[in-house]
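A quick aside before the break. I want you to see a complete sequence-to-structure record at least once, exactly as it would be stored in a machine-readable document. Don't worry about memorizing anything.
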Amino acid sequence: MEDLAEGLLKGLLRLVGVVVRTLIWLIWELCLEVITWYVGWPVCRALSFNQYPKVSINDHDQASNFTVGVVSIAGLVTLFGTAIVIAKLVGWG
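That is the input. The structure line, written in tokens, reads:
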């Protein structure tokens, strides 16, 4: 009887582990790739006078890894910078 309960518990824990890993992957995909791309793309275009990146805002799947990295980092820096400015204006920082 103990073996059956232990087997069920292990199976349930494995299922919970798969669900948690899937949620983490989705959050990573959404936040660090999609949102930062859509924030960083117009920033990069504005700073480079409409020269970089060459791909359209909706074509980040066709962009090179370097371009995705640069644009995503620009988006992340923009998001953090905006959060810091807002925090200073509100008086949290």
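Two observations worth writing down. Residues 2-47 form the longest helix (46 residues). The chain has a mean pLDDT of 89. We'll return to this after the break.
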